[in-house]
Amino acid sequence: MSAGLFAIYHFGGGIDLYPFLYYGLKAMSNRGDVAVAYVYNNGEIRRLEVDLSREGEGSAPGAAAVGCVYVEDCCKEVDGGVICKFGREEPALGERPSATAYVALTKDGAVYAYRPPKLWHLAVGVHGFDFAIVATEAAVVEVLGGEVRRSILGGELLKIHSLGVESTGGGEAEELCALEILYASRLDNVIDGVEVAETRAKLAETLAEKARAEVDVIVGVPETGMFYASALARRLGVWSPPAFVATARGRSALLDEVKERLAVIQLKANVVKTVVRGKRVMLVDDSVISGITIRQMAQMLRGKAGAREVHVAVASPPLRRSCPYGVKTPPVSHMIYNHLAPREVAEALEVDSIAYLEAEEVEKAVGKRLCTLCLRPPLDK
Amino acid sequence: MVGDGAREHAIAWAVAKSGARIYAAVGHPNPGLVQLSKETGGWHRVVKTTSPKEVVKVAEEASPDLVIIGPEEPLFAGVADALREAGFLTFGASAKAAVVEMRKDVARSLQWKYRIPGRLIYGVFKEVEDAYSFAKALGSVAIKPIRQAGGKGVRVVYGDAKYLDGAFDEVVARGAAEVKEQLRHYGDVEEAVLVEEAVWGVEYTVQTLTDGDFVFPLPPVQDNPHAYELGLGPECGGMGSLSPLPFIEEAEVDEAVEAVRATVEAVRREFGVKYVGALSGQMMLTARGPVVIEYYARLGDPEAVNALFLYDGNAYDLFKRAAEGRLAGAERRFKGGYTVVKAFAPLGYPQSRELAKGRRFWIDWDLAKREGCLVFFGSAVESPEGGYVTLGSRAVEVLAHGDTPEEAYRRVERCAAAVRGEGLFHRSDIASPWYLKAMAEKAELVRAVYKWRRGRGLDKRRIVWRPGVGVEVYEF
């Protein structure tokens, strides 16, 4: 997934921007836990590391700020200011790279927000007459009490300063990153006028055609899998109760180390046994990379909770390649479908069956062209 | 014609079309008014338009059949009263009546006293701390100067999110302090702050002409108060407008007209004066139904430009009937289709007048003509070196007409290229297809809620609970 980029501009001059930075970045903690911000105040730019686990403990006097949430720091000081970006290119402030999104703060306190023609998303919103807000997740604007105006267009550059807002360039965004829609985005993100939840419901409809196993109950892997499970269950007419109780929230795919991943799975999902005991269960997840999560969950469902059958439905194609545009993925050697034939995967993961969507099916359900490079078999296979 | 903005240019254009000869009393030689007066055989005089004495002097020189006052400040200063006293047939509210715009606190109290529909909960405070405490109790608030200040000094904070409690404190407190500062500058009212509940929804303006008995509504218009592209940035005089409005229902317009009518009546009962002039309701369609955000004792700017273009009767006759008390017989005829107006402002507007002043620009008249757009001048004068030069506020307004909002939008955006020069900006988002879609969606959302509320009688009573202070019950 891509980084969560954030920018805020206060037209009324310097105030304490900290609460806005904190909640703005926190609202994108689905994208990582390293949160960094830069704040402009009276001719100076100050760096701020935001600890997302500690509420309300900081101050950030200033009139404008940019920031980023990801698995690593994605802001840096450049000629003329600071840039927080996602993508491999190294654009100068005000430039328009082909596959890199950025928010930037200039030395004189102006904010740039740029969405490339493809892959990544940014939305712009407003709070009263005072604030302009830009974020990867449109919902950030709402979290800050504001109103979303629209998605920034593909290739559009916004410059926000005290004397105006200039929009240059831009057209219909093409080839969004499939992972953004499939699982990186918040369910309530709105991309180019379409809520992600609406798109995921369509994906679940398509998945319903493929997951043919007869089951008694459909359960989702927290958290992204749960919406897919519920949409799938609606289509198949099967009960879909919450079946896991989380102790800690965290995105297992973000962690490289298998051991760490296992710990996270246990922390994020303890089974509610009643709802699966003696039943034929369909387990729904948003992705399959190494398969470790699925194997672990399936074992818990069967071994600890007494599920009779465990069928798996995945709302995306398996991850097969690393991303040329900069999305952090586990190494290719960790991707199970690169090592086993599809029918062997079910065996390796010890599940009764496994169904997933093909890249073409995803594109068809979403209704527009997506970048699905990482979901395609490696070239040498 | 008294006044020198694009609104006055548009009024003069409309009455000149009906055969009137224009004499203009202007604060600066608005190129549009200068030309119109010349073309129709009249002339213009540069005066202080808020000085009753100076304006009466111009009227005496011109001896007109009708005086129309465009802007609000001359009304506040009693220019309409002075003209009437001197025996001129005048369209424009008396100072007593224009108070509904000048004093937002008076307007709100009038609304409550006379049960005028579209009310909001409000309080008036001299101390910033008190304003702040009341704002806290209301949650989402709008902070305004009690006096009309050209749309400046208004702050809106949506404080529903409790975790952001405190985050907006500074915005609210500073807003209240700035409001007081603003009022000190005018020096004609006490320095007090109006705090009222902030509402969310779709704005629309219902402009009317009235002779004190009969109210003549013009088609509804939507203005856009944010200065910058995408509806971002500070509040200003308005950057563009659309009319009529595909996303507002007829009954919602009727409610606004009803509010204006009730206000005309309230002014008569409270102040003992007939309201003769323009009275507009700047409305918002909210989850509580249509509410009055504020009144204009005039036509809106740029809203007047849309409405006067759409009026298809004899505009001179319309204004004259209003001034004479014979408005009931005015011709009600409007053009079909849609109009979009875009304002062009110099960079610096509205934050820094100094920066916004002195920018040169040109109009490509051939392009405007080819596309069928109309150009109205505002805060600009002819430059001795050719072209025009800005004075600091909105310099020109361009109108386009089309069968659909989209056609009008495309045309006005093509015409935007006719305004040439350094450092002029306009908002390209206003009336664009995505904008219209967003407005329609927003209107549908709030409409469903207010209709639901009304269906259950929830629009009749509101309780405001201030912990530690007590309970206030508002009957609507």
What is the gist of this entry?
The complex is a heterodimer of chains A (381) and B (476). By secondary structure, chain A is of the alpha+beta class.
Element layout with pairings:
The complex is a heterodimer of chains A (381) and B (476).
Chain A: E1 4-10, E2 15-16, H1 18-26, E3 34-41, E4 44-50, E5 61-62, E6 64-70, E7 75-78, E8 81-86, E9 101-106, E10 111-114, E11 118-119, E12 123-127, E13 131-135, H2 139-143, E14 147-151, E15 157-161, E16 164-168, E17 174-177, H3 178-184, E18 190-191, E19 194-195, H4 196-210, E20 217-220, H5 224-236, E21 244-245, H6 258-268, E22 270-271, E23 280-285, H7 292-304, E24 309-314, H8 342-349, E25 353-356, H9 359-366, E26 370-371
Parallel strand pairs in A: 11-17, 17-26, 20-23, 23-24, 24-25
Antiparallel strand pairs in A: 1-6, 1-13, 2-5, 3-4, 3-6, 7-8, 8-9, 9-10, 10-15, 12-13, 12-14, 15-16, 18-19, 21-22
Chain B: H1 6-17, E1 24-26, H2 31-39, E2 44-46, H3 52-62, E3 67-68, H4 72-76, H5 79-85, E4 90-91, H6 95-102, H7 104-113, E5 122-125, H8 128-138, E6 141-145, E7 155-157, H9 169-186, E8 193-197, E9 201-210, E10 215-217, E11 222-223, E12 226-228, E13 232-235, E14 240-243, H10 250-271, E15 277-286, E16 289-296, H11 303-310, H12 315-324, E17 338-346, H13 353-356, E18 360-363, H14 365-371, E19 374-377, E20 380-382, E21 388-390, E22 396-402, H15 405-415, E23 419-421, E24 424-425, H16 433-455, E25 461-466, E26 470-475
Parallel strand pairs in B: 1-2, 3-4
Antiparallel strand pairs in B: 5-8, 6-7, 6-8, 9-10, 9-15, 11-14, 12-13, 14-17, 15-16, 17-22, 17-24, 18-21, 18-23, 19-22, 20-21, 25-26
Helix pairs in contact in B: 1-11, 1-12, 3-5, 6-7, 8-9
Give a written overview of the molecule.
- The complex is a heterodimer of chains A (381) and B (476).
- Chain A has 381 residues and is an alpha+beta fold.
- Chain A has helices at 18-26, 139-143, 178-184, 196-210, 224-236, 258-268, 292-304, 342-349, 359-366, and strands spanning 4-10, 15-16, 34-41, 44-50, 61-62, 64-70, 75-78, 81-86, 101-106, 111-114, 118-119, 123-127, 131-135, 147-151, 157-161, 164-168, 174-177, 190-191, 194-195, 217-220, 244-245, 270-271, 280-285, 309-314, 353-356, 370-371.
- In chain A, the strands form 7 sheets. Chain A has a 7-stranded antiparallel sheet. Chain A has a 6-stranded antiparallel sheet with strand order 7-8-9-10-15-16, with no helix packed on it. Chain A has a 4-stranded parallel sheet with strand order 20-23-24-25, sandwiched between helices.
- In chain A, strand 23, helix 7 and strand 24 form a beta-alpha-beta unit.
- Chain B is of the alpha+beta class and 476 residues long.
- Chain B is built from 16 helices and 26 strands.
- In chain B, strands 11, 14, 17, 19, 22 and 24 form a 6-stranded antiparallel sheet that branches. Chain B has a 4-stranded antiparallel sheet with strand order 5-8-6-7, sandwiched between helices.
- Chain B is globular, with a radius of gyration of 22 Å.
- The model of chain B has no long low-confidence stretch (mean pLDDT 93).
